[in-house]
Amino acid sequence: MDLSNYVPSSSTSGPPVTWFSQATESLCARMSLQQPTDRPAAPCVLSYLNEGGANFVFRIQPQACQDPNMQLHGRVPLLRIRKDLSHVQTAEEQLRSFDQHFKPLFSAQNLVEHEAVQLDDHVIPRLNQTVSQAKRSSSRTGDLMPNNEKYGLLITNMSPWPMETLVQFKPKWLSQSPNAPEEAKRCRTCALRAQRQANNQRTATDAQDNCPLAMISESAHDRRRAAEATTTDKKLQDYLVDDAQPLLRALKENQQRFDSSGVLGIVDNDVLSDICKAMSLRDCTLFLKHGHRGVEARLSDLDLKQPEKLDKWRAVEEVLINEGWYQNREAEEVWREEKVCLLSTRYP
């Protein structure tokens, strides 16, 4: 899910819903799906915030919440509930996957945390009515939540307060695809951007016009240029150039560790499992928030990709290779000189 989904926007808010949640443990502590308690339900008002391809996110209105302990990192959290789509894991599976596969890879201060919360039976049907009345992307108006969903996830609220600056972007592929041809003039992210551009397609990541390899370049000049393309906030630019490097390099190293050979030659289920982790790490989002306490950096959207996507990943890789997008040798009628990718300066 794109991080912009977490930024409050009055234009996307639907009618509020009163939420009676039965927490599995104290909301001010780590929750466990295996340790239910008799703690009474806490009525809160929810309002639709936004959505991604797999989940809805709702804002919890603190002034209407009767649970004073509902805090996550000192702030009222957001509530995330999965969509009723076959490829989307349940909240329990999402939490288990996050804890098992991704949480051990990074410092807690650099992750959007997840905590489980149990929902009363009437909550989802009412929320489905709410989202149906909200202003949404036309491509997602048919998406709803499963009426039998019992759990949601409380997630760290990174919405900026007044006088704070929030930047959100996907670092994407921080190293070249293992299947890319030698002497490529585009990295995997830039090759896909160019291919989509030729088909008049443009995602939020494409709009950044930025090369991920530049963001972790050994050259401070390259990193500065990438930072300036990402944000106009001087403090966040400085952070990306220097202090963010350990986090970004950890992200890169784990992408490489879980995918050393690429998607085209997978024959082993264990390798496929690791590829799914690598692809998840290549599609996560980074929050950078500049406030009076300095800069806060957290990775989000670490939902494990499913093996069913393998055919799609292979098809994308084959197109990028066979049509010359990696080497900037695409068909003449759509050819454009590559000027964004860091690799284009290596093999002019």
UniProtKB/TrEMBL annotation:
Keywords, alphabetical: ATP-binding, Kinase, Nucleotide-binding, Transferase
Single biological process term from Gene Ontology: inositol phosphate biosynthetic process
Keyword Transferase: yes
Reaction it catalyzes: 1D-myo-inositol 1,3,4,5,6-pentakisphosphate + ATP = 1D-myo-inositol hexakisphosphate + ADP + H(+)
EC number of the protein: 2.7.1.158
GO cellular component term, pick one: nucleus
InterPro entries, A to Z: Ins_P5_2-kin
Pfam families assigned to the protein according to its UniProt record, in alphabetical order: Ins_P5_2-kin
Function, as annotated: Has kinase activity and phosphorylates inositol-1,3,4,5,6-pentakisphosphate (Ins(1,3,4,5,6)P5) to produce 1,2,3,4,5,6-hexakisphosphate (InsP6), also known as phytate. Phosphorylates Ins(1,3,4,5,6)P5 at position 2 to form Ins(1,2,3,4,5,6)P6 (InsP6 or phytate).
Family designation: Belongs to the IPK1 type 1 family.
Protein name: Inositol-pentakisphosphate 2-kinase
Protein's organism: Hortaea werneckii EXF-2000
